[in-house]
């Protein structure tokens, strides 16, 4: 029989992958707090100009949406794409003015099926999302498809060795080596730069893909 501890850990993993139900507001706030450094570093690495068209794929608690809105200014556009309905509703409420103005465009979608046109964004970020997909190559090809020539796609993850030791990651996380993610992004046709952020308790890795 599955122990109570195992059921609790599976619940935690499931909420992190797709926040839902009465726990979703707490999970959203926890995601924002726990990932704020990694998200800010991803936004910086995307080198976003004023007036740009950007996207946050799997935005979770929405911290990245605010940072992107700040970067693109009044003339830019941010696409927020999320698989979790509760996170979409939360973002719609929190950023209602930006949604109404058209600066923020919220859509349901996943890494392997992005609701974006080819060559439609100048930069995108996706942080702590690739744990929850089985088709990494397909996801990276989708990122490359929607980024314009000269644009950037930034993937952020926690250090795989540290993540693998966390008690909840065996319950639905796919932990991949750094090299596997870099290779998948490179195989999508992008030039890839890697950066490491020595954050505690979980160091972070960024993979910055650039379209030629």
TrEMBL record:
InterPro entries named in the record: Methyltransf_11, SAM-dependent_MTases_sf
Asked if the record carries the keyword Methyltransferase, the reply is yes
Q: Supply the Pfam families for this chain.
A: Methyltransf_11
What transmembrane ranges does the database entry give? none
Q: Where is the signal peptide?
A: none
Q: Which keywords does this chain's UniProt record carry?
A: Methyltransferase, Transferase
CDD domains attached here? AdoMet_MTases
The segment(s) forming the Methyltransferase type domain are 56-155
One GO biological process this protein is involved in is: methylation
Keyword Iron recorded? no
What molecular function does GO assign, one term?
S-adenosylmethionine-dependent methyltransferase activity
Q: What is this protein called?
A: Methyltransferase family protein
Query: What organism is this sequence from?
Result: Mycolicibacterium moriokaense
Query: Which lineage do the record's taxonomy fields give for this organism?
Result: Bacteria, Bacillati, Actinomycetota, Actinomycetes, Mycobacteriales
């Amino acid at each position: 029989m599955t122990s109570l501890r195992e059921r609790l850990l599976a619940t935690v993993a499931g909420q992190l992958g797709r926040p839902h139900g009465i726990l979703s507001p707490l999970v959203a706030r926890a995601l924002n707090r726990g990932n704020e450094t990694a998200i800010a570093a991803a936004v910086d690495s995307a080198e976003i100009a004023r007036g740009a068209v950007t996207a946050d794929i799997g935005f979770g608690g929405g911290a990245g949406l605010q940072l992107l809105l700040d970067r693109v200014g009044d003339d830019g556009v941010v696409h927020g794409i999320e698989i979790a309905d509760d996170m979409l509703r939360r973002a719609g409420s929190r950023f209602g003015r930006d949604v109404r103005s058209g600066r923020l465009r919220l859509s349901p979608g996943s890494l392997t099926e992005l609701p974006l046109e080819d060559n439609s964004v100048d930069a995108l970020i996706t942080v702590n999302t690739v744990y929850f997909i089985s088709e990494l190559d397909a996801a990276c090809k989708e990122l490359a498809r929607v980024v314009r020539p000269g644009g950037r796609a930034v993937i952020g993850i926690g250090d795989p060795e540290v993540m693998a030791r966390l008690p909840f990651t065996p319950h639905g996380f796919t932990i991949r080596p750094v090299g596997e993610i870099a290779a998948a992004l490179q195989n999508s046709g992008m030039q890839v730069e890697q950066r490491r952020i020595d954050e505690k308790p979980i160091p972070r890795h960024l993979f910055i893909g650039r379209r030629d």
